[in-house]
Design a protein that fits this description.
Blueprint: E1 11-19, E2 26-33, E3 39-43, E4 49-52, E5 58-65, E6 70-78, E7 85-89, H1 108-141
Antiparallel strand pairs: 1-6, 2-5, 2-7, 3-6, 4-5
């Protein structure tokens, strides 16, 4: 419920992780949204500017991104859908979108057990395939 009215409204949030996976600093990084949002925040705190281009697209601009540097751009819209990210680019290249999903971190013993069973299964299936192939060869040659 909105604090000043009895009407319900929707708050949409989105988080985007921007990473420089290169070996050199990225200069003049632009994060372009399809339309203006109500609120933008960047974490960890760093200097950035928010601008509108002539077509009405909102641009979050960073001066530089060091190699392996990571920043999260969080956006909030109240009562309307979130815009799509149109582009992430710098002076030398264009970024690409990689979808990620949060995943529970499993205990180490569980991961080791899964790896052991996977490797054991590969050897077992390989042995059965070779055994089957040898039986076929024996049938054909005898």
């Amino acid at each position: 419920m909105h604090p000043n009215t009895d009407k319900e409204f929707l708050i949409n949030t989105g988080s985007y992780i921007v990473i420089n996976r290169g070996r050199v600093p990225a200069k003049d990084v632009e994060f372009v949204l399809n339309f203006k949002v109500d609120e933008i925040s960047v974490w960890p705190q760093r200097q950035y500017t928010v601008e509108m281009n002539p077509e009405g697209r909102q641009i979050v601009r960073f001066a530089t991104f060091a190699p392996k540097e990571i920043a999260t751009v969080n956006i909030i819209n109240m009562g309307k859908a979130l815009p799509k990210v149109l582009n992430v680019r710098n002076a030398e290249s264009v970024g690409r979108m990689i979808e990620v999903y949060p995943q529970q971190r499993l205990p180490k013993y569980f991961t080791i057990t899964i790896w052991f069973l996977l490797i054991f299964g590969i050897f077992f299936v390989g042995r059965e395939i070779i055994s089957f192939a040898l039986r076929i060869v024996r049938l054909v040659w005898t």
